[in-house]
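Support reply, case 0932

Customer input (verbatim):
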Amino acid sequence: MLLADQTGGLTIVDGVVVGLYLAAMLAMGFVIARRNASTDDFFVGGRNLPSWAVGISLIASLLSTITYLGMPGEMFRTGIGFLTRQLGIPIVLLIVWFVWIPFFMRLNLTSAYEYLERRFNYATRALAAIFCICLLLGWIAVVVLTASGAMVEIANLRLNWFFSSDPADADMHALILGVGLFSIVYTTMGGLRAVVWTDVVQFFVLLTGAVFTMAAVAVETNTGLGDWLEFSHGYKHEQVEWFSWDVANRSTVFSISIGMLFWHACTHGANQVALQRYFVVKDIWAARRSFLVNAVSSIGLGILLAGVGLSLMYFVLGSDPAGGEMLQTRAELLPDLENAPPEDIADLQAARTNAQKNVFPQFIRLYLPSGLRGLVVAALFAAAMSTIDSGANSISTIVTVDFVRPLRGSPLTKAGELRLARMLTASMGIVVVVTTVALYHMSKGTNIIDLCQRGFNCFLGPLGALFVLAMFSRRATPRTVIPALLVGEVAGVGLSYSKEVSTLLFSMSEPYSFSTHLVVPSAWLATMVTSLVLSSVLREDAEAGKQRWMWRHVTGASSSDLTENAGTEISET
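Our regenerated output:
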């Protein structure tokens, strides 16, 4: 066997591996910090970073620990069919390549929401910026909490002395603080340039962890990819439907593909984390290369994690691993649903789903040899840290560019603004740690992680629709888009929490549950329709909206320029 002692936990060798990784991240932050002389360096890396590194950084930032640990488990549920979620990638590639990148790159932005003031007014810009901050804070907190929970199970540190007498609480406190602290220190020092280069390292650590997991299974079972595929073909996976009119069905290829299509399109066209990556390269073609690297890396990593799932499926179900926990997992993965009493089927299915999610963390803890286990734990740190560093830097950018600069009476010096940006980034780290610890204690006995995860994506659909309206609707004005943005958000929240809403407001005995994959496209559609309807009703604003649209898209001028020149230069254009 690979592991003689199956008690789990990190050994000294594992601790050294994780420690070296964390030390390398801090060292990179210190070195890169010397190159930051202004907020232009801190927020957009001087706009001269290499496109390949930016593309890899983008996939590392958007990939969370939830995805890294969850994708192998999805192989148990649907088999190779789960790769159908990648069907929307070619459409996203066309949208980003031909629409988003050419449009945003010519505007020379630092925050994506600067454009909204040029197109509409400051109120629209500020509201969109607040929506993005809420999205990022919720996203970061959930990722850190789930990552820390997985690492607690794997590491088994039992730090009873760390702010709690309960070992589980103490371990969670330590890991949340550790992930947050290390991420924020190098991000505060090095800014986005540090984020990009540490993300590159973290991405390759993630790849290495996945490859070594498959290698460990191959060596232990003396099998390979062909054996795993053959076993998967014979395993009775959950059937994947191509289409269903039932909007509560979250497992159809159509709903997953549409959900992923809108998520990626809105993320790359409205989320500061993604758009800020394009602002750090020198021109349109460099930005396009960055996205191409991101798309190829995303597909490649998805296939690699599918391979991890195949290998773990064979290891747990096709071989005879020692260890009580894995044998219990095998029993949960193969429940006898046909002969089970009807009242027990739901519990058995829930146990199977939970076992699918936990296979990867259990394998890491029980079967990976010392050293490799530390490497995979470092990969989990990497997935969480890339989320925190990107989110914190983007929030700092939004606060500085969208609120401090417009609202401050006198501009700060370059040095003063750089100090402020670093203080804001460090503050974000404190907020993330405190919020995540509070979320952890609130989650005991509840499903608050699921609630929060559903919640933060409510902001993405309306934000994506707002930018589409700004770019393509000549009749869109502040009087139409601000109410539409709010209506889209209400729709997103209502659909995300449809089960809770139907129970609380309508006292339904069988609560209705809307597919989470359709929340982003539905909120996007609600925002679009509301704005278009209001544009038809408020016809007195149509001509002004058309003039603003033409002026903004031709010149990209400021609000003051628009006021002065709208009557003359629009006609010349």
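We compared this against your earlier run and they match. Two observations from our side: The first helix runs from residue 12 to 33. The CA atoms of residues 172 and 410 lie 44 Å apart. Please reopen the case if you see a mismatch on your end.
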